[in-house]
C-alpha cells in the first residue's frame, strides 16, 4: 500500500473491488480479460489482482460500448496504449477522436432510417401506394434483394430527396 495525502491506497484491487468500483459484473471483467481488453496479475494464491488504472480502462470500454463500437475495435484501440499506467486525458482524446467519425456515420444512417420509416423502403413488392412512384417496374429489384432505399448494396444509406 502507498500513502497518499495521509490515506492508505491499495496498489492492486481484487476482482470484486474492481467490479464494485466500476459497476461491471465480475463475469464481465473475466470476459474483458479473455478478450485482451484488460489484464490482471496473479497473487501467490493465484487470485486476480488488477492495477488501479484498470478502473479508467473499464470506464472507457463501457463508454465505447454504449456508442456501439464493437469490442474488437475497442481492443485494437486499447492495444496500442501502455498497460503500465492509467489512461490519460490525451489517451482518451485520441480514442474518442478515432471513434467520432464512426459515431457520426452511425448517427447519419439512423437519422436517414428514422426519416424513411413511414415511406417506401424499396422492397420491390409493388403493393404499397408509393411503390409505383418510387420503384416503377421494380427497377430497384435489379440492385439486389431487400429494402434497397434503406439498405443499399454498398451499405451506405442515402437520404431520399423528393
Describe this structure as you would to a colleague.
The chain is mainly α. Helices cover about 45% and strands about 10% of the residues. The strands form two sheets. A three-stranded antiparallel β-sheet has the order 3-5-4. A hairpin with a 2-residue loop joins strand 1 and strand 2 (about 5-10). It is elongated and about 75 Å long.
Structural class: mainly alpha
Give the topology string: H per helix, E per strand: EEEHHEEHHHH
As an assembly, this protein is single chain
> Which strand order does the major sheet show?
3-5-4
Q: Per the principal axes of the C-alpha atoms, what is the gross shape?
A: elongated
Strand content: 5-15%
Got a strand count?
A: 5
Work out the helicity level: 40-55%
Rg over alpha carbons = 24 Å
Tell me, rounded to a whole number, the average pLDDT: 79
The gist of it:
The protein is mainly α.
Highlighted features:
162 residues, mainly alpha, three-stranded antiparallel β-sheet, 6 helices, 5 strands, disordered C terminus
Question: How are the elements arranged and paired?
Answer:
Blueprint: E1 2-4, E2 7-9, E3 12-14, H1 15-22, H2 26-34, E4 41-42, E5 48-51, H3 54-66, H4 71-79, H5 89-116, H6 131-134
Antiparallel strand pairs: 1-2, 3-5, 4-5
